[in-house]
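[stage:ingest] chain + small molecule (GCB)
[stage:ingest] validated
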Amino acid sequence: MKKITLFAASLLLLAGITRAQEPAPYPQITNIGARSLQSLDGTWASLVDLYEVGAYDYRGKPKPIGNTFFMDRHFFADETKLVEYDFDVAPEIKVPGDWNTQRMDLYRYEGTVWYRKAFEQPRTPGKRYFVYFGAANYASVAALNGKILGKHVGGFTPFNYEITDLLREGANSLVVKVDNRRHLQDVPTVDYDWWNYGGITRSVYVVETPETFIRDYCIRLKKVAAPANAKAAKKAAAELKKYGSAIEGWIQLDGPAAAGKTVTVAIPDLKVSKQVTADENGLAKFEFRAKVSFWSPEFPKLYGVSITTDQEELKDRVGFRTIEARGNELYLNGKKIFCRGVSVHEEKPFNAGGRANSKADAQALLGWVKEMNGNFVRLAHYPHNENMIRAAEEMGIMVWSEVPVYWFIDWTNPETYANAENQLTENITRDRNRANIIIWSVANETPIVPHRLEFLSGLVDKAHELDPTRLVSAAMEKEYINDNTLTCNDPLAAKVDLMSFNEYVGWYDGNVDKCDRVNWVFDIKKPVFISEFGGGAPAGRHGDKYQRFTEENQEYLYQKSIGMLSRLEGLAGTTPWILKDFRSPKRFLTGVQDDYNRKGLVSENGEQKKAFFVMQNWYAQLKEQYESK
Ligand code: GCB
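[stage:predict] done
[stage:export] tokens:
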């Protein structure tokens, strides 16, 4: 994979002209909620630009910046000038939010929408300022006061630009061109089973920091190798008892005074306060021992952490836990677990969806997971908003976090690889301090074709390199050995930490009774994780248990699936597809689907279907079985 990455880097250098116009974002500022912020959420002005008039001329060439919408000119300020747009009188649009469910004329729109926010930001000497976007789908170019800040690609991860030298006294104009068109070489590519919600879908902030500030940090339980023999094990146990667990981490300072600066990491509850000095790159590493209570679904303990320099104090709440795969079993904090999960899309819980973003949305979605006796969510098929991860962490719900390498991808395109790796990196960077994330997933249902293994192996290696403390996996696919025997025979299985795959016996594969006939065998001994199974039914549509798209059929399918899965050796978790009905343009059946994938256990308006209670019962049994041990 190295080769491809190097090649990608040289391509980017060669493409210097476009890069110079549209720089990459500034390195990500993490733990955004704890910063000094001005929210730019609320009403923005919007221009729907189907033909790219705001950026290209009538020969298809990029306009000089002075002629683009980035300049935020005003026709009504001087009507002697020809200016054919004016954000001041343009329709309003809400941020955060997708445009599709805000304006029915944009329901199926794929193209460019220009966003403009006018704001004031008092400047304090000696401070730096950044504009931070939680996410914009899919590609966005931002400009402040007519100067391009940069371009970001990928619809589900945060990015930020420094604006210190561009801020004005009085009104500032922030213009963002957001384009959600799909392309073959993108991540995801042109075909996927969810709605292509466009827009600035997550919160936007102006962040104020000291001149030299804490940009990023990592704090976690140190991964310790298993003791080599009984004597070493005894010694390790004695040390653990006496001094507690080893905790390690680092702090990345950013700014002119970063090198040599003193940083203090304190966890008052543990009576820990550790001073460290940053190296010449502003990186301060630390390690200490402390007697911690581990984070787990039953006891989601989080410790208040403060990181301080002479210029700032940054606070977080952090949990500590271990996660390991041993043979075909999964262990959290040394205890065997079963992931009682469900897959979830990032859609609002009630009132027919649209992109979710708020803490209340997260709590409602995760509330159903708890009600189902769940302890796990697979956040499909892309990084969800930070509220979702943090709410899950507080509620004791473990997380599978994924990047949208979905179905087919342009496997040989180095820019596609660089894009996928960048989305993975941005995701891990944002969430590496969240104890509840136990699995990074690099792909979903990708076909076994040439070059795909090289591409995905590169991502698996990258995830392990960025984070050696978590498991890395992908949702793979099943395969038949004979009529009644199934396996997962994906070469990627040797590379990832779990034998995880999507199953669908009884829905896409035969009718429900087939679940009684089939058995599963695996060559490789890894924890088996059923990342999807299930079938569809609109809430309130009733009929015979063999009649498709009825609640009875869905219920029966869940009952039979559970019977089948319970016979499966090494089963360590399931995330049925899916918690809630979600919008997809691939679902055409009028009167039944109506633009919704109906495999939800809950409808798009929050009604629980019969199958919900089948899962609830099974998970109650598994909970009893595992938690009473
Ligand atoms: C799958 C995909 C998921 C789809 C689901 C379905 O295998 O991973 O994104 O929505 O099937 O409902 O067909």
